[in-house]
Amino acid sequence: MIQAIAYIRVFASERSLAGPGLQAQREILENFAAAGGFHVVREYIEVERGTGADRMQGRSALIRALKRAHWLDLPVLVAGLDAVARDTVTLAEIMTRGVRLVVAGGEPFELLPYTGSLSAPADTAAPVRRRGNPQIAAARRQAAVVLAGQAQEHAKAVEPYIREAREAGLGSFRRIADHLAARGVPTARGGTWSAKQVSNIIARLEPMLHRFLESDGRLRALPRNRQARGEVLRYLAAKFDAEASYAEGDVNALIRNWHSFGDHSLLRRELVEAGLLKRTRDGSKYWIEG
Predict the structure, then answer these.
(1) For the chain, which end, N or C, has fewer CB atoms within 10 Å of the first or last residue's CB respectively?
(2) Which of 26, 132, 12, 231 is CA-nearest to residue 221?
(3) How far apart are CA 11 and CA 116, in angstroms?
């Protein structure tokens, strides 16, 4: 069996934290170890009070776990990546400590240590003064890729619930956040859903559309770019009930509710020309093509 060290991080003051607690993390690690042929020889538990900075300073259990793992050349098992780091600076620092990190929760993966030298080689023939350390900068870039992948994975998991909220007529980031909380959807870092978190997720899922949304879900502008315009118009068309027909006044009222730049006629015309909104020849009835 492969010997390994386990590291668990819990927050003592956040009893409602939407993330695995001590026992849940331990079960994830035990199940993973049993299935993967690992034998945990030492367990380190970090108990934190609050959700402050993620830096290594003050995280004595993590420091001891990394030192022991490096000394014994053992991997460190964690239930989730955010147990060790939630920012690129901390993750990059961990990656330069020569320890394999095995993330057991969700879809398990390994984060290999950054093997570059931590000191830039001296060039006596042509000395050049450089600020910073290119090796650590490279580790930070690699860490950023890992964290971005985790954020994208979480955004995709939340996407069906955002779609559900929109279909229920909830457009603002704040109201979508309340819907996610009511449905028990966990945030990426634990804690309470906020409008900013929803905005960040929509920016990952729909980066083009996000640029043209107010925080209350209304359109702030009609883009000139053809692709972006199509995405904005499809977003607006989704606000209509596919089972209903509308008089022109009702169409105008609905469009007014979902944009902030004061040109409902332009948006109505664009929806019709894009084939997203159908109407009779005399304009007395409008409907969405099902």
Answers:
(1) C
(2) 231
(3) 34
pLDDT one-digit tens code per residue, 226-258: 999 999 999 999 999 989 999 999 999 999 999
Position 144 in a domain: yes
Average pLDDT over residues 66-86: 88
Alpha helices in the chain (DSSP H): 22-36, 60-72, 88-95, 134-167, 173-182, 195-205, 207-210, 226-237, 248-257, 264-273
The pTM (predicted TM-score) of the whole model is: 0.58
Task: State the helix-helix crossing angle for 134-167 and 195-205, rounded to 10 degrees.
Answer: 100
The residue length of the chain stands at 290
Q: Give every strand in the sheet of 76-78, ordered side by side.
A: 38-48, 2-11, 76-78, 101-103, 109-111
Residues 7 and 91 in one domain: yes
For the stretch 111-148, pLDDT in tens is 776 655 434 334 444 443 444 445 556 666 666 777 67
CATH code at position 72: 3.40.50.1390
Pairing of strands 38-48, 2-11: parallel
Indicate the helix (H) or strand (E) that contains 40: strand 38-48
